[in-house]
UniProtKB/TrEMBL annotation:
HAMAP family: EgtD (MF_02037)
Biological process, per Gene Ontology: methylation
Secretion signal span: none
Domain of life per record: Bacteria
Protein name: Histidine N-alpha-methyltransferase
Family: Belongs to the methyltransferase superfamily. EgtD family.
Catalytic activity field: L-histidine + 3 S-adenosyl-L-methionine = hercynine + 3 S-adenosyl-L-homocysteine + 3 H(+)
Designated gene of the protein: egtD
Role, per record: Catalyzes the SAM-dependent triple methylation of the alpha-amino group of histidine to form hercynine, a step in the biosynthesis pathway of ergothioneine.
InterPro entries according to UniProt: EgtD (IPR035094), EgtD_Actinobacteria (IPR032888), EgtD_Methyltrsf_superfamily (IPR051128), MeTrfase_dom (IPR019257), MeTrfase_EgtD-like (IPR017804), SAM-dependent_MTases_sf (IPR029063)
Broad enzyme group: transferase
SUPFAM superfamilies recorded: S-adenosyl-L-methionine-dependent methyltransferases
GO molecular function: L-histidine N(alpha)-methyltransferase activity
Pathway: Amino-acid biosynthesis; ergothioneine biosynthesis
Amino acid sequence: MSPFLITRTLPEEAADAALRADVLRGLTRTPKTLPPKWFYDAHGSELFEKITELPEYYPARAERELLMASSADIAEVTGARTLIELGSGSSEKTRYLLDAMPDLDTYVPVDVSESALTEAGHRLVAQRPGLNIHALITDFTTGLALPGTPGPRLLAFLGSTIGNLVPAERARLLSSIRSLLSPGDALLLGADLVKDEQVLVAAYSDAAGVTAAFNKNVLSVVNRALGADFDLDAFEHVARWDATNEWIEMRLRSRTDQTVKIPALDLAIDFAAGEDLRTEVSAKFREQGVRHELAHSGLELTRWWTSGPLYGLALARP
Ligand code: AVJ
């Protein structure tokens, strides 16, 4: 068998239909919203890689340092023969885990981006000749079917990307992950922690304006895919801390009264001056909250690693 398989379970036209449905639903309701998954076209993915290197954006560094320090522990405690990674992207996040698992049989990177999976897969085949790689092109938030691979399996969901989901969506995803795990398997979850509001807001409104460009890029994605005429300069990037929900919200605020045309949907969308379009939530967590959400989905928190007050890694078992 080839050491590198790539399977597409997300039909190519599905992405276009999903974007049309999300824009139709999100821009004709109040308040207006768009799901954050549409940030990540090629330019958005590049901007996100730049964000992870910003001085203000600590989550990526904090998680990387935690993984450097705890990967050997995680490898020993789980004895994993298969590593599955949801939202694997460049597979940079799992570099330390893979290095700590020299006898790993199979790595299953899961992402919506075929280019990211192909690039990472070819790099890993060269670096790890004995490792089987089975990449899945799919949107795991709409369902996940895993190939049969040797157990025990470790499913990693890193980057605190689970924070992009509101509580009800998190419960659904954790329950679907639980249904995929067998006895002996484990989930490794990255979770950014609640901290000082100034630190949190700065991480999503950097001085260099990279996050502002990342946020506005979703308007370019809609312009290109649906022929819309969003003027990116007519919107202001806003990042605010919602202390009630304990999440950062990114919004695009209309600077003026304006109407945006979306011909592919035969829509004309009015924005009032000062009106916000919410583009992302990034929930921040507390250990007890993570323990409770995992338990609610049938998963027991068995290990918790933290790097100071910044960031947490949870190991959970069915
Ligand atoms: C990749 C979803 C974890 O929510 O912190 C970074 C995306 N948004 N800056 C996050 C993001 C603004 C990031 N996640």
